[in-house]
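Good morning C.,

I know you're traveling, so I'll keep this short. The sequence:
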Amino acid sequence: MRSSNPVFSRRGFSRDNGYAQFNARQPQAGGPAVGTQANPYGQAPAGNPYAQNPYAQQDLQQGAPQAPATTGRMTMDDVVMRTATTLGLLIVTAALAWALLPVDEANLGKSYGIAIGSGLVAMVLGFVQAFKRKASPPLILAYAALEGVFLGVLSSVVDNYIAEGAAMQAVLGTMAVFTAVLVAYKAGWIRVNRRFYGFVMAAAMGFILLMAVNLLFSVFGGGDGLGFRSGGLGILFGVIGILLGACFLALDFKQVEDGIAYGAPKEEAWLAAFGLTMTLVWIYMEFLRLIAILQGND
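The tokens, ready to paste straight into the viewer:
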């Protein structure tokens, strides 16, 4: 399944080097391949009894058969290590930004300017990686570092001027959502299939469109725009944003599971780390915004 998240419509694993990998032509869960052979991953890994079309043989949540350890193929350890590296760099730069870019009255403008600049560059790097055919570790790590600077200053501003302790609460909330979705996914309580994918994508596109319209009204009309990010509507859309992030985590988990099962190359673990990082950033920011509304003065 080609996974996405609320920030970027990124590619999944791409078909290359004879490995079974994700690409944009891959079928959605429960459906036949589009424009490809019956098996969307090409040559099935050794030991896979569903070589013709694994999706036609079993429900997604029953678990795809694991490919045997093969040199050059992605493993769960690869995904965990790359994700830990990417998130670790983001956390370190966020902590440094919090400590080295003060948000007192004398330095707020300068620190906030650096944060906005870092966030914009991180967004550009994210788009570049999203449309690249292969994972670029330096690009992904640069994205994580700059995103960390942005989040560090933003969190400091919210913590100091709007809602004390909001950053830690947002971190704990993000960890709780990640853990809950992982447990629910592994237990089979979340069924990642074609219907689930279609619903999440439609909801995400609608959400992003509304937020973009709200931002435009806010920029050109002043105030809170249409009010989607403040007051009662702000709370509602904050909860919806967190739920969407949780749904995209489930899609990311399925992407990783299928990539391992069908022989994605080892370097593709960086794509998994990139996607998981973006989704977790999305959830954290929605929590931070929600807490600011609940505890602050908008």
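Safe travels,
E.
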